[in-house]
């Protein structure tokens, strides 16, 4: 019989604990319960030793010993594990590549006057166009935007050369390694198709070659997904600047019509924010005081970064937003959407609205999104929510009290705007000086998910606090950013967590940003915005004329759940940045694969560390993980001679 965890065991967040208790008292099942019911995981799958690639199987190899040592086709444990990892990478890269392509199509339609968006950041448009070597002289804004969009779409079509976004954004010293290994992507769809092909029965059986295929997926993810999406979204919706928002389940408002926007692509949700403002008066006619948009997961991050929209929940507690009984609609686009939200919604008046033709949920309403008709879809969704308000049962409403104020919006541009007040000619110099003299011991990107199997927020917050007290500057994205916001690491109170030199620097920089201090954790955005930490590191590496791999910089994803997080981690490692994951990445069935990733083979030159300068660190204890990350930071400082 599986042990069902008490609410205080599943989350550090007392509001989540409260709402989980409410859900259970009403017989409503959530992901936390289902994670417990799942109990012990399949030992074959957990080790990456189950193969379902063809109908000779499923084949499985018993971890560490007895039973068959090869599948029916002759694949051994190393091949099975490497293929299983590549499958995960394909999923991650595909998700982000599709995100990038959708945004590129929206930019194209906007430039052609076919979609109702405006280009909010013309400066960024011109910078991106120049970076792509496009002609801008004498061209109109829409002509330049069209050229940028078509150049982006080429990254899903071209059959020779290198992806345009790698030519534009890829760090030259990393490029040399990728080119030498022959792993630099040509176009995202081509590479994904090749990866699927090599992973099929009878395809690639060489575990090390398969691992290089995983690195290619990391690069596809990074450049056709992350960089391309961040750049084009900044062009369309504005490059983030410092902005205040509130975080917690308490951002739902009993007196207002509440709409949660959930998923990843902000194309529709930006319009929903617009239409909520336009239809505000209509809300009054049904007895509500207004329309309150709240964010979930990375669509939430996108909106808070640019619009200061309040954030309600990260991934693992998404169903509990509905359990408040005060949610009129949850609108979802793509990725990280639990189908379980529909079962929970059926216990309330909440309408789940899917919006993408390839992401539907049985029982949910579907309002189709196409960029051309974005206004129609957004208007219909807001009007549905207004109508649903009358169906709300006040007896079922439970909204926890107390939310946390936080500051976000720290794009590279925003950080440089602040540091330029100290050194206008060389905005990065104040950061470089601080790294060199040890004021900043290192930089850590605390990123990624929350996972219903793991106690929510504990890993993310503990790793961040351990690093902050050792003067490591934290940048953050994704659901990890939600965790850090909740515990005050995005406001002035969080300075208490910092070591003295970091604290003093954040106070000094804050004054240049019109704040009393910069927050200890700089929120850089959604998961596609993991482009931003790499852009920052690449710019610092250029100034120092060293590879990114030489910098005292690390990544940590303490509460990993998604394949996307593993692919992002691989993209970081491909640049030579060590990456910690706190959840087993399911590669233990092959010593060869595990040791190649973690750099613990004797022939070091063919490990991730040896090839790229960054390795995988698997550690479930966040305190130990932070200690390992500090060791690696110090090792890189020493090698740099600082
Ligand atoms: O892309 S952090 S749980 S919501 S996968 Fe998903 Fe993980 Fe959250 Fe954003 Ni990223």
Automatic annotation (TrEMBL):
Residues where [Ni-4Fe-4S] cluster binds: 264, 298, 336, 449, 479, 527
GO biological process terms held by the UniProt record: generation of precursor metabolites and energy; response to hydrogen peroxide
InterPro entries (UniProt xref): CO_DH_a-bundle, CODH, HCP/CODH, Prismane-like_a/b-sand, Prismane-like_sf
UniProt keyword list: 4Fe-4S, Iron, Iron-sulfur, Metal-binding, Nickel, Oxidoreductase
Annotated residues for binding of [4Fe-4S] cluster 2: 51, 54, 59, 73
Gene3D superfamilies according to UniProt: 1.20.1270.30, 3.40.50.2030
Gene Ontology terms, MF aspect: 4 iron, 4 sulfur cluster binding; anaerobic carbon-monoxide dehydrogenase activity; hydroxylamine reductase activity; nickel cation binding; peroxidase activity
Top-tier EC class: oxidoreductase
Pfam families per record: Prismane
Record-given protein name: Carbon monoxide dehydrogenase
